[in-house]
Amino acid sequence: MYKTLLLFAYLVLSIANTSAQSPEELTQYSDSLYRQLQQIKDTEEKALALLDLSFFWSDYNTEKALYHVSASRKLLGDKANTDYYQGLLSFYLGAIQFDIDPAQAKKLYMQAENFLNRDIPTKSKTSATRYRARLWGSYGALLQREGKAHEYVQVLIDKVIPMAKSIKDSTLWGNNLQNVAMALMNLQEYSKAEQYYNNALTLLHDRNAAAEQRFTLFVNAARNALLNNKYTHSRIFLDSASHTAKSVSASSYLPTYYSVEGSYWEKQRDFDRAHTYFEKALVGAKEQRNSDMVASILFSQSAAFQTANKPASAMRKLREVLPYIEKNPSLKNKEMVYYNLATTAVQLGAYQEAVKWFEKHKIVLDTLLADKGTALTLELEKKYQTSEKENELLRVKAAHQQQQLKMQRTRLFAGIFLLTSIVLGMLSLIWYISFRNRKKITAQREKLNLFNAMVQGQEKERSRIARDLHDGLGGMLASVKLKLSAVANRAAEAQPQTDSTMHLYTIIKQMDDSVNELRRIARNMMPESLLYMGLEVSLRDLCNAMNQPQLKIDFQATNLQTDYNQSFLIAVYRIVQELLTNAVKHSGATQIWVQCSEADHYFYITVEDNGKGFDPSMQAPTKGGIGLSNIRNRVEILNGHLEIDAAIGKGASFHIQFELIK
């Protein structure tokens, strides 16, 4: 019944650790830091200590955090205007705005990056790089909050981790390996996440100063193993976390540890022990006033009660979650909780309440789909405006070139008047070459127009069918579901809990699943990721979607750009889709390799399989559809080159090459 055990994701956003369990403890800890600061004699060191104190207060008291930044700026004097310190001040101001105004925080982080990426003095180079790694990590975390999990992972891999490696900071390196692992875990890529967790543990092994980082690593690695159904590994990590917790007894991550322990014992069906740990987690989360964590723990408790076949207790915990998710802007969290409230109400026989939650779930789900549509429209409008600006620039360049050509011709005729015959011969030759080039360009334009017409016609038809499915048949199914719900309510009021009523609610649930499946099919007719997330993401999603238990598809992308025109994007996507479909249906393979890359203005596609192969001199291996002829036509229209390396019993390889014209 429960779609997932993870309602909210928690990421380690800094290497600092403070218990922060009560206002009194906060004050005591801050006073201790301030007394240490007063003992520092060097002005710059004291200014940096004030900034670190500001970072500490940024999570708890904005006014105090801003005060310490201002005090640091005054203490630095004229040095505050140097690139290095302007970068640091922008970074710490961004940390203060992280939760208050994320958009402003992102601007401040990029401002800090601009200062710290300049010609910094050698003595501060390493420190500047460390701050750049931290600001990019925070910037990526804000992207993840916006639902851009893949972009967050890309920032960590492309920006943060290389910087940490360059300055040989194992702690920073290990922390961000863990952040990558957590992002992959939230994307349900548990095997990849496990690799990053193991790499992070190797880096932080036996580092006494990194006890807090190792503790969070053990907890999160245990949670990942649990989600991957590797219970033995999860127990090993939890035992290591329990041992490490003795040295970080004031850690703010203890509630998360208790929550993972509770989920582990739920899987072992030791529900008493599970709820003991969940209650410990709730106490810690409430002491920290962390409402997101409280909601996540309550949701996990409701899942445990559901596993124990106690729907009444599960419903009670779900109702406790409601106030938190109503205040939280995440529509995905609302959709998940409403769905589980509805299905649990059905178990309890509260059919009227179930209908109410199903309706709320449907409204939120429709809003999520509408938001995606709006975002897509804005992205397409942006691409259109960019294209118009580029076309205008090309027109201006062409006019300028024509003017320059006229001037050159005038000078040429004036300078070589006595050599008319030679000039005429040269002009004749130039005319012939120009005429031949014009014929080539005309032929290429005709091919391009044919290609655009074909692709646009196909894609418009796909879009039309997708809209008809979603708006037409989808609306009809939803209407039927609502009418069935009304009939079920009247039947439940007349004769509650009869077999007919229960069957009717089962049919309603099946109807709801049918609507969701219809929407999934409509989205597949025109992949949203291809239009606004780029070629690499859409091809990776395609390969993941076509993976089967008996067939593994491995996708690799190298140096792919983000500015291909839409016609080229659709052509490449459809070529790969057709090749994969042929291989899945007809090759009998257990492994397919897909590679896409760009190098030296050429785009390469390679699709290989270890199946039964075929004779390429014979007809296309597909009997239904247009098979290889469709692929050959698309490649030819784009002036590409296709090579097929295949033999019966030895698999098949398809190699495609396009020249990119900038």
UniProtKB/TrEMBL annotation:
One of its GO terms (molecular function) is kinase activity. It is an enzyme of class 2 (transferase). The keyword Nucleotidyltransferase does not apply. It comes from the Bacteria. Its EC number is 2.7.13.3. PANTHER family: NITRATE/NITRITE SENSOR PROTEIN NARX-RELATED (PTHR24421), NITRATE_NITRITE SENSOR PROTEIN NARQ (PTHR24421:SF10). This is histidine kinase.
